[in-house]
Specification:
heterodimer, A: 0% strand, flat, B: alpha/beta, Amidase signature (AS) enzymes, 11-stranded mixed β-sheet, globular
């Protein structure tokens, strides 16, 4: 599988990452090598082995649905880059 | 003069009045200052540790010694939450982030009397095998300052290696405890998947991640494991089985059935000295009456590709939470729309290796490629798990080198991600199948560097693993 410019741009967009032209060349070539490396799995005959989806053998670990305290409002805001006394502040995202 | 050898000896010294917790904390604080060039610690909680040691000394005078880890000085990898303290995963994206709660392991440590001494350097988001991917700069191996300590829990390994704490907690997704333990000449345990709560551990790849323990000896590992294991209502992936309690006096004469993978010892990337030392040790084991047999493992060359597909997929999903809204770095760059806003925050905050892995993870999960890469890797993972069950039907444990080479030079492999990934070839297996693995510092290389042997048992069998480990350490004249 070749990592073309358009594949790279699409992955960067889905990843919510942006790269300068210089970074792009560098990361793109690493990504191409990594993709070729993982394609080694094509050699494995997996026949009818189903995918392993869960590591744990546990099924449905239940607990009572009780209301409990969590972090306070001020604690929740403590690490926010921008906030007022009650809310996280985010940029205006709706354009006119 | 304080000198640490084991928790048991330290506790005796406390009971006999030969030392105090306060004196011990002063010793470690001074050790850490002297060894500042190693860059093992990002932050030292000196005042808190002294205050806690004073409380413990007073409590001991009044009520005797309480707690399995009474006064034990512990360091935490910078991915484990400690309430009120900074937590960054060695990433710029979390600069200044403060933990709002304790990880369950931290609560358990504190409940048994431990003293948390500081926050330890690591690879960014636990991604790396050399501790060179840290926003705080590389950690140096104490045995040779021109060499890496391994990763991703490099700071935690060096802290135990250089006597900067008694035990460290790290995290192990593909070898991040066992590989640095090997490079630093100490003991490093990755327990069974689900043995220890991960509440308060920054997630990298959730079907692999497990908190692990660094110590100088197997008995200290066993005590720490007993304390931090067990069910947790904040983490439903934790097993409800009781915490493993290891009695080392049982089964001292047991003859073990041990397997090793033929392909692992014949691998072209394996250092010849490491191969020779492992083979010689196998002979010693056989001579001592243990039954050691070669087992075919034709899937060896596929485990690293499988590991990277699955872990990068999980990482790309786990790390999507770092968007610069509720916490984390927010860029001051102008933006056109919301997607640009996120991209600016994330691109400035994450380092190169994290970006590479997010990109690869996004690729293997994207429409059109999902079945060819991600599902295929999950199928191979199932094959590995079935194979493992067959091996453990016949054998008590699997042994192998921990790492194919001793600690390499700083920047020797940092330009080649794939070369770096191959350092994990023997360790990722345990994470892929969920079993416990330990690295034991049995050997020394002609470069002067220590190296280890890895031992793995079937899931939830940490007690037999630790008992066997102690026997092997004794055979090597180490415990």
């Amino acid at each position: 599988m070749e990592i073309t410019d358009s594949v790279f741009e699409q992955l960067a967009n889905l990843s919510r990452l942006s790269f300068s032209e210089e970074e792009k060349q560098h990361i793109k070539s690493d990504l191409q090598r990594m993709v070729s490396f993982i394609e080694k799995l094509d050699e494995v005959d997996i026949a009818d082995v189903p995918p392993l989806l869960f590591m744990s053998n546990a099924v449905n670990v239940w607990r009572e649905d009780e209301v409990r305290g969590s972090v306070s409002n001020s604690e929740a805001l403590q690490n926010a880059p921008q906030h007022d006394e009650a809310f996280f502040q985010v940029p205006k995202v709706i354009k006119k | 003069m304080f000198r640490f050898s084991s928790i048991k000896d330290y506790h005796n010294a406390l009971l006999n009045g030969q030392t105090t917790c306060v004196e011990t904390v002063h010793y470690y604080v001074s050790q850490i200052k002297t060894a500042a060039h190693l860059n093992a610690y990002i932050e030292v909680f000196e005042q808190d540790a002294i205050a806690r040691a004073t409380e413990l000394d007073n409590a001991r005078k009044q009520n005797g010694m309480q707690g399995k880890l009474h006064g034990v000085v512990v360091g935490l990898k910078d991915v484990i939450c400690y309430k009120g303290k900074t937590l960054t995963a060695s990433s710029k994206i979390l600069a200044g982030f403060t933990s709002l709660f304790n990880a369950t392991v931290v609560d358990k440590l504190l409940a048994e009397g431990a003293i948390i001494i500081g926050r330890q350097n690591c690879d960014e988001f636990a991604m790396g095998s050399s501790n060179e991917n840290s926003a705080y700069g590389p950690v140096l191996n104490h045995a040779d300052n021109t060499r890496v300590p391994g990763g991703s829990s490099g700071g935690s390994a060096v802290a135990v290696q250089a006597d900067l704490c008694m035990i460290s907690l790290g995290s192990d997704t593909g070898g991040s405890v066992r590989q640095p333990a090997d490079f630093c000449g100490i003991v490093g345990l990755k327990p069974t998947y689900g043995r220890i709560s991960r509440y308060g551990l920054i997630a990298y790849a959730s079907s692999f991640d497990q908190i692990g323990i660094f110590a100088t000896n197997t008995e200290d590992v066993a005590i720490a494991l007993e304390v931090i294991s067990g069910a947790d209502e904040f983490d439903s992936t934790v097993s409800n089985q009781p915490a493993p309690v290891c009695d080392f006096t049982e089964e001292t004469g047991k003859k073990y059935k041990l397997a090793y993978f033929k392909e692992a010892l014949e691998h072209p990337g394996l250092d010849p000295e490491i191969k020779a030392a492992t083979e010689a040790f196998i002979k010693t084991l056989t001579a001592a009456g243990h039954d050691v047999q070669a087992v075919d493992f034709e899937l060896l060359d596929y485990i690293i590709p499988t590991y990277y597909i699955l872990t990068t997929a999980e990482a790309s999903s786990n790390l999507s939470r770092y968007d610069g809204v509720k916490y984390g770095h927010r860029s001051s760059k102008p933006y056109e729309d919301l997607a640009d806003f996120y991209k600016n925050n994330r691109s400035e905050g994450f380092g190169d290796e994290v970006k590479r892995r997010i990109m690869l993870g996004t690729f293997v999960l994207s429409a059109g490629y999902y079945d060819a890469y991600y599902t295929k890797a999950q199928r191979v993972r199932n094959m590995l798990r079935r194979k493992t069950q067959v091996v453990f039907n016949q054998f008590d444990a699997i042994i192998s080198p921990t790492v194919p080479s001793p600690a390499f030079k700083i920047s020797e492999k940092s330009n080649d991600p794939i070369e770096m990934y191959l350092a994990d070839i023997y360790t990722v297996f345990a994470n892929l199948v969920g079993i416990p693995g330990i690295s034991l510092p049995l050997f020394k290389h002609s470069t002067g560097m220590p190296f280890g042997m890895q031992v793995m048992t079937s899931e939830m069998n940490e007690v037999p693993l630790l008992r066997l480990s102690k026997r092997l350490m004794q055979m090597a004249g180490l415990e």
